[in-house]
Amino acid sequence: MTTTTAEGGPGLPQERRLVTQIPGPRSRELFARKQAAVPPGIGTTLPVFVTHAGGGVVVDADGNSLIDFGSGIAVTSVGNAAPRVVERVRRQAGEFTHTCFMVTPYESYVTVCEKLNALTPGDHEKRTFLVNSGAEAVENAVKVARSATGRQAVVVFDHGYHGRTLLTMTLTAKNMPYKQGFGPFAPEVYRVPLAYPYRWPTGPEHCAEEAAEQAIDMISKQVGAANVAAVVIEPIAGEGGFIVPARGFLPRILEFCKANGIVFIADEVQTGFARTGSLFACEDEGLVPDIITTAKGIAGGLPLAAVTGRADLLDAVHVGGLGGTYGGNPLACEAALGVLETIEAEDLVGKAARIGEIMLPRLRSLQERFEIIGDVRGRGAMTAIELVTPGTKDPHPTAAAEIAKRCHAEGLVVLTAGTYGNVLRFLPPLVMPEHLLEEGLGILEKAVSEL
Ligand SMILES: *Cc1c(COP(=O)(O)O)cnc(C)c1O
Description:
The protein is of the alpha/beta class. It has helices at 25-37, 71-74, 83-95, 107-119, 134-149, 166-171, 207-223, 249-259, 311-314, 330-345, 348-369, 397-409, 434-450; strands spanning 50-54, 57-60, 65-68, 126-131, 153-157, 189-192, 228-233, 263-267, 291-294, 305-310, 373-379, 382-387, 412-413, 415-417, 423-426. A hairpin with a 4-residue loop joins strand 2 (57-60) and strand 3. Helix 4 crosses helix 10. Pathway: Amino-acid degradation; 4-aminobutanoate degradation.
């Protein structure tokens, strides 16, 4: 069976349509081939093989059309095969596909950097350079901070996720699956508490102040502020469970960094590009980071990531000290320009906020009905529920897995997350039509109530 249209993108019928079991026979056949050819270390959330996607749906090889609450992990925020992205990439592919920006440069790379310098928080002078993945961006941000400060230590937080390379898996908090068996880890990485309101021992009202005090005390006493090159933090912890730090925590950490010459690196790889109802999540508390790392939503799925920061920091690195063969590939740069045009033309910042206004009240009323939902949180189109054993705060990862399984069977793509694996996270494309958002929420509510 094939789909009704040859093309993906927003022209795909915006409907949930199940014509086989999930996964269907064609996907099962392809999955068997995957298992024989690809190592199991590359996991699979939902084994349907995609042929088309666009708007709020993903269409599989059996002709099923699924509602997408994942966006390929917060990547296709502008929608899959978004027209402005497709048009620019098609044109660029016919002109040239690669020169290496460090060999013979091209304009689109510079334009992306100019735009990021202008759009990221703060009106100070900035520089940007481009790489291929979120991990590479974070790793490079740390290189810049070390080079500029002459210091070595890096401070990260509980529940943090920063990637899978040696340095970034070291920066990541969770052992299984990200670190298990992959040591020894990179030296000079120190972890301090995050202001996690739901699980703060003395309650959410004291969380920001106490967590900041503990973090700063640990940095001062155990590491020595003068030895710290950088603090790396996600303004909302992503893989760690969509934890929104208690208000006041991030500004306090930033202030401490400023007072001690520590580079504050905001890892906005997951929160960036309109996802949380502002272009960058740091804007919510008016934070101006020294360096900001971006990726995921930046280029509609083409591999691109960026390091943007204070000119004096980025200019401190010697000529040739930064870069890579593919970083800022011309197709990916064109895609990024198409993404930025789409965010503006379709008011995706406003759309993300609107998605939050629809989802959060629905999730909270579900929480009132079902004690298994311990916490509802998030901002804009980055929301989550945390599952617990009723009457306690004990993490309930099997409930999260079971609800996800039921949603998948009904044609709703949802992802899990969390240090304890007990969080269901929702990351719909920002262009998702409202009727699909409502239908997806209905499927989720049914899955929770039937558990
Ligand atoms: C996904 C993610 C990364 C890693 O990005 P990759 O492109 O997978 O290397 C880093 N930081 C955060 C906050 C992320 O969500």
